[in-house]
Specification:
The protein has 326 residues and is α/β, with parallel strands linked by helices. The protein has 10 helices and 17 strands. This is Zinc-binding dehydrogenase.
């Protein structure tokens, strides 16, 4: 079968298309013939060696295609062995494509509980783009933060898959969403998804500016931070608000004013991609609310995975980068 293979860690050029053996049959696992896969920043970190993936390796967490044994149209749930504890993953939890062959291939083999029906009306590209960002965003906003209809949400960064998905989820739930971004163009595009507005984080005083846009100027009920700027994020929260952290793309250390934190009655919530039960909740949300499908920024052929990674790393896109497998 055709696959994108990583034989060394490094720049996008280390990703090369090759012919590799088809996955072996394993009891309790199913094979999916993939129609499309989607990239995440997580895949960049895998390529760079941050997760010590075995070499040679086929990366990729997200995908959608045809289940080989039943002919069903499915999406891949890339959360393996989450466990029974809803509050956190089990010690053996891993993300598909970290240590096991992933979705940048014509075929992928996953545990039977890690496939779910393709959402009605979704293209193959949209279906492939949903699982990781959809599952991560659903857990962050609803399982962890408990975002409710009528509340306010600030999403740090407007262009990535998590950000665009969070705005769509909030709008569909009847929450009021705002964003930060590096450009007015991305803020305008976030408005098209349902955001009420936003500010450019290039302004040194962006936290005060965006707080002034919140209901009553009191701050936001929830701030979703995938970049690691806790100090500024806390400044944008209302007293008693919830800061949900799911990334550290800009900073891995975050000093905070401890006294101000506890006097502000803030909640600090860490989160990751969720498990199968979160995905069930996500599909229920899509069934019961009017929520726009994932935004697709650009589609590349599978063999052009290196070019897709280069484009993703530029950070200039808006929405998801997808590989087509046809």
């Amino acid at each position: 079968m055709r696959a994108v293979v990583l034989r060394e860690f490094g720049a996008p050029e280390v990703l090369r298309p090759e012919e590799v053996p088809e996955p072996e049959r394993t009891p309790g696992w199913v094979t999916v013939r993939l129609k499309a896969s989607a990239l995440n920043w997580h895949d960049v970190l895998v390529r760079r060696g941050h997760y010590s993936s075995p070499l040679p390796h086929v990366p990729g967490a997200d995908g959608a295609g045809i289940r080989a044994d039943t002919g069903e149209e499915v999406v891949i749930v890339p959360s393996l062995w989450w466990g029974e504890d809803e509050s956190s993953p089990a010690p053996g939890w891993e993300i598909l494509g970290d240590h096991r062959p992933g979705t940048c291939a014509e075929l992928v083999r996953v545990p039977v509980e890690c496939v779910a029906p393709r959402p009605p009306g979704y293209s193959w590209e949209q279906a492939a783009a949903l699982p990781l960002v959809g599952l991560t965003t659903y857990r962050a906003l609803f399982t962890r933060a408990g975002l409710r209809e009528g509340e306010s949400l600030l999403v740090l960064g407007a262009g990535g898959g998590i950000a665009t998905t969070a705005v769509a989820f909030a709008a569909g739930m009847g929450a009021c969403a705002f964003v930060t971004s590096s450009s007015e163009d991305k803020i305008d595009r976030a408005r098209e998804l349902g955001a009420s507005g936003g500010v450019c984080y290039t302004d040194p005083d962006w936290a005060a500016r965006v707080k002034a846009l919140s209901p009553g100027g009191l701050g936001f009920d929830v701030v979703l931070d995938s970049v690691g700027t806790w100090q500024d994020a806390l400044r944008a929260l209302r007293p008693g608000g919830r800061l949900v952290v799911l990334g550290a793309s800009a900073a891995e250390q975050a000093p905070i004013d401890v006294r101000g934190f506890y006097f502000g009655q803030y909640s600090l919530l860490g989160t990751t991609m969720g498990g199968p039960r979160d995905f069930t909740g996500l599909l229920r949300l899509l069934d019961t609310r009017s929520i726009a499908p994932p935004v697709i920024d650009r589609v590349f052929p599978l063999d052009d995975a290196a070019a897709a990674h280069r484009y993703l790393e530029q950070g200039s896109g808006f929405g998801k980068v997808v590989l087509r497998h046809d």
